[in-house]
Amino acid sequence: MALGRLALGTVGASRRVSLQRGLLFLCALVLLLLSEAVEPLGASGSPGGAGDSSGGSHGLQKGCEADVTKSKHPTNRTKKPFPVLSFDYEHVKTPFEISLWVLLASLMKLGFHLIPRLSSIVPESCLLIVVGLLVGGLIKVVGETPPVLDSQVFFLFLLPPIILDAGYFLPIRPFSENLGTILMFAVVGTLWNSFFMGGLLYGVCQIKGTDLNTVNLLACLLFGSIISAVDPVAVLAVFEEIHINELLHILVFGESLLNDAVTVVLYHLFEEYAGVGSVSILDVFLGVVCFLVVALGGVLVGAFYGILAAFTSRFTSHTRVIEPLFVFVYSYMAYLSAEVFHLSGIMALIACGAVMRPYVEANISHKSHTTIKYFLKMWSSVSETLIFIFLGVSTVAGNHSWNWTFVTVTIILCLVSRVLGVVGLTYVINKFRIVKLTTKDQFIVAYGGLRGAIAFSLGYLLDKSHFPMRDMFLTAIITVIFFTVFVQGMTIRPLVDLLAVKKKQETKRSINEEIHTQFLDHLLTGIEDICGHYGHHHWKDKLNRFNKKYVKKCLIAGERSKEPQLIAFYHKMEMKQAIELVESGGGVKLPSAVPSTVSMQNIQPKKPPSDRAIPQISKGREEEIRKILRNNLQKTRQRLRSYNRHTLVADPYEDGWNDLLFKRQKLMEIEKKMSKMSNYLTVPAAAPDSPTLSRARLASATYVLQKIVYPQAYSSKPTSDDLPTIKVDLASPQSPDSVNLVNEFQKAATQNDPDDDGGLVMKVPFADKDQGEQDNKKEQQRLMRCLSDPGPGGDEEEDEPFLP
Amino acid sequence: MTGWRRPVSLEQISILHKRFMQLSHNEDSLRREDFKTISDLASNPIRFQIIEAFFDKRNFRQNGEGSVEEISFEQFLTVMSHFRPVPVHTMTEEQRESLRREKLRFLFNMHDTDNDGTITLEEYRRVVEELLSRSGALGKETAKGIADAAMLEVASVSVGHMEPDEFYEGITFDHFLKILNGIEIETRMHIRFLNMDTTNLCK
After folding, report:
1. Which of A94, A331, A382, B98 minimizes the number of CB atoms within 10 Å of its CB?
2. What residues in A contact B121, CB-CB < 8 Å?
3. What is the pLDDT of residue A603?
4. Over the stretch A255-266, which tens digit does the pLDDT of each residue have?
5. Is the pLDDT assigned to residue A335 strictly greater than 90?
């Protein structure tokens, strides 16, 4: 019976899920049809689609005309009843359509993840293209012309968020270590691809039998340059999901970003001269110079804006709310400025993001950092979705001129040239690399060379008058894109598994690794200096020192400019552990990867028994003290609880919220544990001012707590911003309650498990734990002070003297 | 020259010899003071440890211990050979492992100054203090905190469960190997300059 109910339940659940999915798709369809239905009402089936302003201006024009006609016949106005409800779609047409498309894209994305197994087999990009095809088909069926992906919209609005997201979060270390390899692939590889493909295509076109004779050499070369560039959007979309190791990821991805400069130059070069029909040596030479200008210029523009952004962020400590805005606007300005001069906008964006990141992150608040991260991810995600959907729609919409020979030869040549290029270049590169690229690596790099929307947009930009075969080109481009995204995109994941390519290491960076990475850097720099050889460690060290001495002082506000990297890393790690602790419910689950019972006391060397300043006490006395302490500890804990409820609720600083939540959780947990405990009392063995002394289960928790509670000992941040409200100053006894809180935690931390009799139990003879004796005395004094100062809301406890 | 698996090429040896002569002012042996004349080394936070490593007998591959006051060219070359680049991808797994051990042993010797086979908490604290010494006056407390946390991590990973009154003596070489498994030392700890002849692979 239970089984039957269970079965019914699951069936019902799956039916519910499929019902939800169905509703979702129905919703999307309705939205679509709505958008199509209102379009004819707008009296302009504009082919510009989303973002096209011609429809809007057309509408405005009509309005003006209507006004003019009205004014020509002023006397003929008859009195109409006052319009209560009117319909005026024209003036919201453009934003309405844009919003509908964005909504459609997001709903599609939602929908895919509701279908459980689909997203693990088919990469999202493929699904989105299919959706685009369907939508385009639907629009055609309805009778409208579906919009084509407008190149302006693509390059100005859809591409920048994706590139900024990639550039801001670019892992600098692997990127700079492999920069030579990446540049080789990007520059030489793309050049090879373009010329190989262009040349061979021209050869094929010249063959009698195909009717491709009209395609001249320059047009072929232009086509080759458009189609040969690896596309960052497609690469990101597919590689995000397969989690290969960092090296391969950065190689393919870096190549896709840096080949933009080459593509831009080649495209403009051939486009300029394809109309004319010939290219001279001077033009080639100018092209080379142009390449250097485009690449370096883009990087410089980006770096300039990056420094500006970093400098601006230095002063934002009073207006934290608009910090993310600076990051976005400066980056976008970098992109647009580069585009003004026909420099490489992509490289400008990457440079801007990479340059500004270390300084901006040191200056902005934690919340702004989160905001930037999420906004970038959101925008880039939406952009990517829209791009793929529009690719699908454009396929249906565009005029196609299918030529079997051309298309098949293009696809074959793409694959062949890519493989040859990668193999040849790797042979040369491996001579200079220490970590050589294996055959498996080469295969993944070659197979991961996906083409995408950039190629399509570049092709779309071609002028039809200069290039009569533009439609054929577009068809071929779309076919190649479909082939790479569908075939290569879908099969790369099983291939990666089949070839057992190394996957991304998911391990957290440990403090030991960080220490030794830095140590190794300094060691290698030192050895290079001893050898007298100015190798790349030497220059890296020089750059770091220059950075620390001059740049950081300018661009980072306040005290953070002096914080060395190791300490920053350490703070970050502790913060992460604290947050993890809170999220895992207050220390019930061990936050670190390896559960262990090792704690700080295992590491601290045993201190020799010092001279006891206090006389030995009798057993009876000891028992009395124990009882008294226990009673009062419980009382103070109760008082603390009520005390904390007041302060926690009234906390004005939201930044300290995490810390306080965390403390509250800890308190509640300690409550639980104390209630389970029976008659013994444990006392920490070392002096309370040693920073860490607790069992491993709460080791990191207490450690963090100590950090939060002793802020001046650990961080150099100025106390003006976001500190938790409970501060401790051990030196001054004026804050007995807080001090008591600390002691409370220390004590409780050592009493966590009533089951094992471990922990430091106060044993007889007392001589062993003489330090604990000293503590007892100190605590008694503190408790006395605390009891005499009840604090707000603590009046249910009476003050009873605990020492007779 | 026992224990050398791959010789350094002749060209490299002559360049290093020239450098040796330059540093030692054309004498036969180098002393610690000669290293101090290298100006670039002055800004290195761990220069003392690096210089010490050259005079540490444990790095001379002769199973010696203790330190010397002056080194010959052969010993100079031996220490340098720890940093030669090796074609890792042609090696078998055990060759890689032994290469890792060799390089990590060098690092271990740099930390373990009293040569008792373990890196105690004091020694580790000193390492972190040195690393942070050039980075401004942030006090010994932070360095201590970081070293403590690092030590705790090693103990947690290597030993796992310890009773509260047990004492973790220090990081042994095996623990050191384990904790630094993540950084691929065999591919990172080399100076490109010391490129070597790959034809001889003595077993």
Report:
1. B98
2. 603-605
3. 64
4. 998 888 888 888
5. yes
In the predicted model, what is the mean pLDDT of residues A142-169?
A: 86
More confident residue, A652 or A396: A396
**Smallest Cβ distance to B191: which of A516, A524, A592?**
A524
**How many CB atoms are located within 10 Å of the residue A388 CB?**
28
Closest chain B residue to A693, measured at CA: B164
> From the list B41, B46, B167, which residue is nearest A530 (CB)?
B41
Q: Name which of A518, A594, A601 is nearest B156 (Cβ-Cβ).
A: A594
**To the nearest whole percent, how much of chain B has pLDDT over 90?**
0
- Comparison of pLDDT for A694 and A242, the residue scoring more: A242
pTM across the whole model: 0.68
pLDDT digits 0-9 by tens, A792-804: 443 433 444 434 4
Q: Calculate the average pLDDT of chain B.
A: 76
Return the C-alpha torsion angle A524, A527, A531, A534, nearest 10. 30
Q: Please tell me which of the candidates B41, B148, B160 has its beta carbon nearest to residue A600.
A: B148
* Among A7, A510, A269, A351, residue whose Cα is nearest residue B180: A510
In chain B, residues with a C-beta closer than 8 Å to the C-beta of A434 are: 85, 87-88, 187, 190, 192
Q: Residue A105 — very low, low, confident or very high, per pLDDT cuts 50/70/90?
A: confident
Give the separation between CA A473 and CA A461, rounded to whole angstroms: 11
Kindly tell me if the per-residue pLDDT of A746 is higher than 50: no
Q: How far is B20 from chain A (nearest CA, A)?
A: 9
Q: Cα–Cα–Cα angle for A476, A479, A485, nearest 5°?
A: 140
Which positions 489-508 of A are in contact with B (Cβ < 8 Å)? 505, 507
Rounded CA separation B82/B77 (Å):
9
> What gap in Å lies between CA A485 and CA A157, rounded to an integer?
22
Mean pLDDT of chain A: 72
Q: How far is B146 from chain A (nearest CA, A)?
A: 7
The size of the A-B interface in CB pairs under 8 A is 195
Other residues' Cβ atoms within 10 Å of the Cβ of residue A597: 21
The 10 Å CB-count burial string (b at 16+, else e) for B153-167 is bbbbbbeeebebeee
pLDDT of residue A628: 75
Nearby residues of A203 by Cβ (< 8 Å), 6 or more positions away: none
Q: What is the pLDDT of residue B193?
A: 65
* Cβ contacts of B122 on chain A, cutoff 8 Å: 605
Residue B172: strand, helix, or coil:
strand
CB contact A304 to B (< 8 Å): no
> Of B115 and A592, which is predicted with more confidence?
B115
Can you give the pLDDT at residue A346? 92
Q: Which residue of A has its CA nearest to B190?
A: A524
The answer to whether residue A309 scores a pLDDT higher than 60 is yes
Alpha carbon distance A60, A652 (integer Å): 50
Which one of B162, B169, B185 would you mutate to disrupt binding with A, by most A Cβ within 10 Å of its Cβ?
Answer: B162
Residues of A (727-766) whose Cβ lies below 8 Å from B? 758-760
Phi-psi category of residue A793: left, alpha or beta, with phi > 0 → left and psi -120 to 50 → alpha: left
Quick one: pLDDT band at residue A743, thresholds 50, 70, 90?
Answer: very low
CA distances from B93 to A433, A723, B83, B88 (A): 20, 51, 20, 10
Which of chain B's residues have a Cβ under 8 Å away from the Cβ of A564?
A: 132, 135-136, 138
Distance CA A545, CA B53 (A): 24
What secondary structure letter does DSSP report for A138? H
Q: What is the mean pLDDT of residues A144-156?
A: 82
Q: What's the longest Cα–Cα distance across chain A?
A: 115
- C-alpha torsion B106→B112→B116→B121, nearest 10: -140
